[in-house]
Amino acid sequence: NKKAFVELLFWKSPAVVCEMTKGYSSLQEGEGTTRSRVPPWTPQEEQELRELYWKYKEVEGGDIIAAILAHLPTPGRTRKQVVKQLVHM
Question: Which helix (H) or strand (E) element contains residue 37?
Answer without folding.
Answer: none
